[in-house]
Amino acid sequence: MAFREVQVHEIREVLRLWLRGEGIRSAAALAGLDRKTVRRYVAAAQACGVDRAGGEGQLSDELLGQVAERVCPHRADGHGQAWAVLAAHHEEIKDMVGRQGLTVVKAGELLARRGVVVPERTLHRYALEVLGYGRSARSRTTVRVADGEPGAECQVDFGKMGLLPDPGTGRRRVAHALIFTAVYSRHCFVWLTFRQDLPAVIAGFEAAWAFFGGVFKVVVPDNMAPIVDKAHPTDPRLNQAFAEYAQDRGFVIDPARVRRPADKPRVERNVQFVCGSFFASESFAGLADAQRKAEAWCAGRAGQRIHRTTRCRPAELFAAEEAPRSLGGTLLCRANLFVTTGRPSPRR
Questions:
Q1: What angle do CA 115, 120, 122 make, to 5 degrees?
Q2: How large is the greatest C-alpha to C-alpha distance in the chain, in angstroms?
Q3: Is 91 found in the same domain as 44?
Q4: What is the Cα 348 distance to its own chain's centre?
Q5: Which entry of 4, 6, 34, 268 is 20 to 30 Å from 60 by CA?
Q6: CB 53 within 8 A of CB 44
Q7: Would you tell me how many other CB atoms lie within 10 Å of the CB of residue 170?
Q8: The whole model's pTM is what?
Q9: pLDDT greater than 50 at residue 282
Q10: Is the alpha carbon torsion for 43, 47, 51, 56 positive or negative?
Q11: Are strands 171-182 and 188-193 parallel, antiparallel or unpaired?
């Protein structure tokens, strides 16, 4: 059955329910459609002269055709206005996703800042069908790793971002991001640093606990030197100072195995997301400016998007189900002595 015929069938069913007295919400539920779609069909029918008191006899093929044309005008090339807008910016999009290597989502954000606003799904289709960008081995079968209990696990990894101005040296230096991802909700925190030593890592953990409002029970880090002195599949040797920090804060360290990204898949995927959506093609005055914008990005763009797997907003899911189960804010009230001396702060 052609798309147009399917749409006319949907319109007929929606209007039949509406004319029988069903509201927008109930008609949407009964027809299996989105409420916005149902509301659009009803509004188009009313504009075409359909009267709710006139009965189902009004639903002639001619009337349904008029409603279908109003809600979705005939497209000679099979594409709508948004596609034409993208075609007008073809070279710009090609440069962003091709030469610059930006993700389609990031390209869409940059276009929106310039006033070119199109549906993200249409942009993905354009990039795939016209530019050949986005093809991947989607046919491969994968087994999804269980997320565990809310508040139980946080995965941590370093990701190389790019160059940032360093006022202290007067030159640009490579910035790295220590990325924290709550496994259950996918809510994330980004800590930017020029160094990857113990004080920088602990400072990042302290900032993460403040951002999340508590401490996770288990932390799964990469085998970074400030945390793991010697990697081993079953018995890694932890850095003593960091192990004492973990004991002081009350979480367990469970390092991923060497060259086994599947041990921490949630944060591995987020490293790409942070690079592509937050850092790429952006301009920052320095590390402090980038950090402020990173935290705003975590709470906004990253935290409020609809995650493709959970189908929830990470920040909302975290607040509802993970925050109440973390170790709580009492641990965050201790003096941050560890960051400057390498010794645990005294327990209260």
A1: 100
A2: 82
A3: no
A4: 38
A5: 34
A6: no
A7: 7
A8: 0.61
A9: yes
A10: negative
A11: antiparallel
Residues of the chain above pLDDT 70, percent? 82
Residues 67 and 85 in one domain: no
Name the nearest CA neighbour of 205 among 45, 44, 42, 332: 332
- Which of helix, strand or coil describes residue 212? helix
And the tokens for 150? 């809310």
- Give the CATH number for residue 217: 3.30.420.10
Neighbouring residues of 263: CB distance < 8 A, sequence distance ≥ 6: 220, 256, 257
> Once rounded to an integer, what is the mean pLDDT over residues 87-99?
84
Spatial CA neighbour of 101 closest among 93, 112, 91, 109: 93
pLDDT at 156: 93
Helix (H, G, I), strand (E, B) or coil at 213: coil
Per-residue pLDDT tens over the stretch 208-233:
999 999 999 899 898 888 999 887 76
Averaged pLDDT, 96-102? 81
Token readout for 242 is: 């960091």
Take residue 286 and report the two structure tokens written for it: 């320095």
Residue type, 313: R
In tens, the pLDDT along 34-44 reads: 888 889 899 99
Structure tokens at 10: 């949907």
Confirm if 183 and 154 have CB atoms less than 8 A apart. Answer: yes
> How far is it, in rounded angstroms, from Cα 126 to Cα 83?
7
Residue ending a domain, choose from 44, 71, 98: 71
What are the tokens at 326?
Answer: 């973390």
Please answer whether residues 159 and 179 qualify as being in contact, where contact means their C-beta atoms are separated by less than 8 angstroms. Answer: yes
pLDDT at 120: 77
Tally of domains in the chain = 3
Residue range(s) defining the domain that contains residue 287: 153-341
| Whether residue 2 has pLDDT greater than 80 | no
| DSSP reduced 3-state for 185 | coil
